[in-house]
Design brief:
coiled coil
Amino acid sequence: MIPSTSASPAAAELRLGAIDQALWALRRLRVEVEQVRPGLVLERLEGWHDDAAGLYADRARELRFALAGAERSLLDAEERLAVERERARDACAAARSIVTPDRPVTGAGGAW
């Protein structure tokens, strides 16, 4: 989770931008995992020894399970980050709403 440190609009926008980047990277990683998993289909090759084919099948199965678990973990993390993004968006809107020409928020860059 990307910590919230200030109520200033500038800080809130930076936090929202960081969350957006993290969410994009997480989604890209999940897509890469999804693309790898279907290619792990065991095809029996002519001339393989039974032991070698069995070991390969075991390793491929383990890898499929690991990738499925990673995919699930990435989806869970993506959901949590999407919730955090909505919170950051609300915090950003709230920070903007309290800035007035008469009362700029400290750290807002002194914009009047």
